Structures are given as C-alpha cells and as structure tokens.
Amino acid sequence: MTRSHDRVLRERAAAVIPGGMYGHQAVGLLPDDYPQFFSRAEGAHIWDADGKRYLDLMCAYGPNLFGYGQPEIDAAYVRQLGLGDTLTGPTELMVRLAEEMTLLVSHADWAMFCKNGTDATTMALMTARAHTRRKTIVRAKGAYHGAAPWCTPRPAGTTDTDRAHQIFCDYNDVASLEAAVAQAGDDLAAIFAAPFKHDAFIDQAAPDPAYARRCRELADQTGALLIVDDVRAGLRMARDCSWSVVGVEPDLSTWGKCIANGHPISALLGSEKARKGAASIYVTGSFWYQAAPMAAALETLRLVRTTDYLERLSAMGERLSAGLTERAAAAGFGLRCTGPGQMPLYLFDDDPDLRKGFFFVSQMLQRGVYLHPWHNMFLCAAMTEADIDAVLNAAEDSLAALKREAGGLAPVAKLAFLAGGQR
Ligand code: PMP
C-alpha cells in the first residue's frame, strides 16, 4: 500500500519537530483520518498535502475572514512588500492603522501593534499592572488567552511564580465573579473577559449582560481595568468590540487572528485612562512594525466598513446551525449547535467521549467538509449559500451513516481523559 504524502511528512516531522507537531494545529486530538499538512488554499477551501479539497469551516482557527487569498487584501500586502516591510522604523501605515482601529472600536483611543494574540493579551496584563501598580487578575476558568507562561493551558515548563496572582471565576456567574474580586482585595489589576464562552470541548454560551455589566462595575469600583479578549471573536460579532452587543465597554481590548485576514498582526487597543500605563511598559519585537501586514489590515478594515460581510456571516451561520439541528433530529440525534452561527460548535447529546462526534466529522471530511469535533469553528465571507447547502447535504449522508453505525462505535482512546471529568 502506498503511503499518503501526509503520512510521509508526519514521519519526517517526527524526526525534526518535537512531538511531530505542537500547539493548536497538531492533529493528535482529531480523528486519525484528519490531515496534518496542507498545500494550498483559496476562498473558502483548503487542499491537503495529498491534493484533496475541503470546504474549510476552521478558517485557519479564525484568521481567514474574507476568504483565503482575498484579491484586494493580498494586492495591498504585495504592493507594500514591494515598497518595504521589515524596516529600520515603521511606516505611515502604522499611524493610519491606529487611527482606523480607534475609529472603528468605540472604547479605544489608542492602539499598539504586535504579532500574535498572546502578545496582545500579555501586553494587556502588563498595561493593567503598570496602570494600577497591582498584581492580581481575575479571569474565567477554562477561557483561553494564549500560550505565554502566565496563561498557557498546560503548565509544563512554567513556574508557580509565572502563574501567580491569578484568581479564577466561572464565566457568566456573577456570584463567583464577586467572590474572586473580593478575594483579590486591594490588589486587583484587571478583570479579563472572553466576549462569549468559547472554551473547547463544551457548549458555548452568550455573555449574560448582567455578568458583563458587573465586570464593568467591579472594575470601576476597585480601579482595576476591564479587558475584553477579542482575539478570536473580534470582527465576527460586531464592527466594534464584541461586548458592544451587550452594551459594555472595556478599558482594553485585544485583537489578532483576522484583523489582516491572515497576515501576521495583532493589536492592543485601549481607552484614554490606560494610555499612560501602556506607554510605560517595554514591549517590542523584530517583526512588530512590519508594514505589509498593516497594509493588509487597512484593506481588511475597509471591507469590514463597506461590505455586509457580518450580516451575511451571521445569516449563513444561523441557517447552517438550524439546518444541522433539524437534520440531526430527523436522523434521531440530538445535536447542540451552540455559539453564534458564524462561530459555531456542534456537539451530540449523550456523547461523553465524543465517539459520535468523531465519526460524524470523519464522514464529513470524506465528503469534502472540514469540521472540528470539539473547538468552535469559523465561517468566512467567501462562503456562499451553495457552500452551506453542500454542508447540509453532506451532513444528511453523514448522519445516515452515523445512524447505521452508532450502536457499534468504539470509545475514542485519545479522548479517554474526557470521561475523567476534565471537561
Ligand atoms: N485569546 C484568544 C481568545 C484566542 O482564541 C487566542 C488564540 N486561539 C489567543 C488569545 C492567542 O492568540 P495567538 O494564538 O495568536 O497567540
């Protein structure tokens, strides 16, 4: 039997990349037939290393908002590459981009740019500590804010000191938020908030406006800063900070992923109050001032302002979630489609180790649709109504296969830890 190019690449990777692959793009916790390597992408589609094409509902884990290789954005990027990218100093584009972002995001009076979401969340933490001259932060259990030592979900390689001065509460639970803030006493520097509950492996949840308002009040009462981590949800919920949908403005917000449609740039935005603290911290990077991603970001923001992408994403997402729920019910399954339709997570009822979910997404993969079994997904504006129909048709066949096989599905050994109640 000939081995796929993907398998050959995995073997080569195992020799020269620790663990074969690392981080969120390692496929170790996905079904065995999921490809690890890809060769190209266009619009809403990706091709794996063996040339098989998929409609991609992961959108690079968020960065693809207007379609892979969106012509206007990439033309702006390439034009700037020709003029200069990594230089001895920034270009005018940095000022223009800060102006554009502060115009778009109502709480923001200033912007700082960096590369990854983790850079932005770490800068937010430092800004809050510098502003308040305090140390403690309150954040929700299970919420992801990046992979720096203070927040990486797996503690290997970190020290207790790296992770000190943090108190955890339950998202959307006002009483636990109040208890955490009380525990911080007079040392509270910041309350971190995800725009909605988008933890892995469990149902997503919209922010309770009462929780969001209480975060704001407690920050105001204590003098701490309120931080909304919009790295994942930014520009997919609103043309503003995502908590604008519940009428709450933070002091700081963190952005990344899709703000330049996949080109490498992230941002920390802040209100006037936090400006001095932000100016006092020393943060930088060799590639943080690159001009070409800024050109791409400006073009992305132009599309955000001038197109109906957001309304289309949300309408397509709602149709997809409703259609899947309905088809699953018709096949005799409870399928929970949680989160906003444009950032959905699909989990089956009575599926503690995700064996049904794994079987379903594998069936979808065979039919050319790339879904994720336990992480929220992302729609992009290059998707069409015909793409949504294609997903629903593939789901009908995949659900029929699941119905035939459900009784005999084996446990998913690689997800055995879920049964241990770690979800
Ligand atoms: N915050 C949130 C909410 C995220 O979803 C992510 C990335 N998944 C990050 C921070 C970290 O971003 P990055 O991986 O670009 O460092």
Short description:
With 423 residues, the protein is of the alpha/beta class. 39% of the residues lie in helices and 13% in strands. It is built from twelve helices and 13 strands.
Indicate the topology.
Layout (H helix, E strand, L loop, with lengths): L4 H12 L21 E5 L2 E4 L4 E4 L14 H13 L8 H13 L5 E5 L2 H16 L3 E5 L25 E4 L4 H11 L3 E6 L15 H14 L2 E5 L22 E4 L10 E5 L4 H6 L10 H16 L2 H22 L4 E4 L6 E4 L6 H12 L2 E2 L14 H21 L10 H7 L1
Parallel strand pairs: 3-13, 5-6, 5-7, 7-8, 8-9
Antiparallel strand pairs: 1-2, 2-3, 4-10, 9-10, 11-12
Helix pairs in contact: 2-8, 3-8, 5-6, 9-11, 10-11
4'-deoxy-4'-aminopyridoxal-5'-phosphate binds next to helix 4.
Going by helix content, strand content and strand pairing, the class is alpha/beta
Which strand order do you get reading across the main beta sheet?
4-10-9-8-7-5-6
Query: What's the name of the CATH homologous superfamily of the largest domain?
Result: Type I PLP-dependent aspartate aminotransferase-like (Major domain)
Q: Rounded to an integer, what's the Rg over CA atoms? A: 22 Å
CATH topology name of the largest domain, in short, is Aspartate Aminotransferase, domain 2
Order of helices and strands: HEEEHHEHEEHEHEEEHHHEEHEHH
As a percent range, the share of helical residues equals: 25-40%
Q: DSSP helix count?
A: 12
Overall number of domains: 2
**What integer is the average pLDDT?**
97
The CATH architecture of the largest domain would be: 3-Layer(aba) Sandwich
**Shape designation:** globular
Provide the low-confidence segments as ranges. Answer: none
Strand proportion, as a percent range, falls in: 5-15%
Let me know the largest β-sheet.
7 strands, mixed
Q: What's the level 1 CATH class of the largest domain?
A: Alpha Beta
For the termini, the CA-CA separation is 39 Å
Q: Which kinds of small molecule does this entry bind, naming each only once?
A: 4'-deoxy-4'-aminopyridoxal-5'-phosphate
Topology, number of strands: 13
EC number: 5.4.3.8
Protein name: Glutamate-1-semialdehyde 2,1-aminomutase
Cofactor: pyridoxal 5'-phosphate
Organism: Phenylobacterium haematophilum
